Amino acid sequence: MAKPEVTHEPVSIERPLWRALAGYRVMTLVYAVGVFLFHHHYHQAYGRPLVGAVYLAFLAVWTFATLRAVSSAERCTNRFLAMDSTVAIGGILLSPVADTHAQVSPTLPSVWVAGTVLAFAIRLGWRWAAGASLVVGVANVVEEVGLTRDTVHNVLLVTIASIGIGYVVEVARSTERALAEALRIEAAARERERLARDIHDGVLQVLAMVQRRGDALGGEAAELGRLAGEQEVALRNLVAGGIGRPPVATAPVP
Question: Membrane-spanning regions, if any (predicted)?
């Protein structure tokens, strides 16, 4: 009875990372909205609260509308990354417009912008993540009109995290390619073994029979039997992986 073939499903480290990124974007959106409402309700901190409210409403629509785009590398296109970066940087630069008195430390998108950088890391690797972190850092410096300790701390934190994640993803992709190649070789070996069994039960038996009949009949039939025997040996070597080796003569089958 033939054994059932065992198939191996490809394992990808990126799938949980994309799911985590989607969850991160939603949670940080809730956090950004909460920070805005807290400062506006309890401290009346925003000189132009309508600007912040409109931006955060747009950010909420954008976040939920693009959840599918951050579900896999195929859907997270370069165009989406460029647009997502524009939304994040636009929110940073709009923050002083809404917070005219500079009373609120976080920007309007707050830590949501880190999700954009992480998308670069997962999709394109650590080098692009470092570049995206640099752009976000420049936007924060422009928004703060100078370097502050909090700005440097936040930018460095996002940069280090995104570079680390991007590097891990690149290593994981190399490992997955090596695993896929190993599985392909294993599948080819199993197929060769199956063909070997089929050939052994079919063609090789026919060649052996021709060799026996040729030896029994003699004359030209004996020559045909000899050729059949040589082909049997060559075919056995081929099945065993011995391509290129000279055929080994065997004694005639009685």
Answer: 20-38, 50-70
What DSSP string describes 137-176?
HHHHHHHHTS--HHHHHHHHHHHHHHHHHHHHHHHHHHHH
Specify whether the CB–CB gap between 80 and 66 falls below 8 A: yes
Amino acid at position 67, single letter: L
Report how far residue 126's alpha carbon sits from residue 117's, in angstroms, rounded to the nearest whole number. Answer: 10
Q: How far is the C-alpha of 166 from the C-alpha of 123, rounded, in Å?
A: 8
Total Cβ atoms within 10 A of residue 90: 16
What is the rounded distance in angstroms from the CA atom of residue 148 to the CA atom of residue 167?
A: 28
Average pLDDT, the chain: 80
pLDDT digits (tens, 9 = 90+) for 215-245: 777 777 777 777 777 777 777 777 666 444 4
130, 108 in Cβ contact below 8 A?
no
pTM for this prediction: 0.66
Which two structure tokens, joined as six digits, stand for 83? 């647009």
Q: Are 223 and 232 in contact, with CB atoms under 8 Å apart?
A: no
Residue at 119: amino acid letter: A
Q: For 108, which DSSP code?
A: S
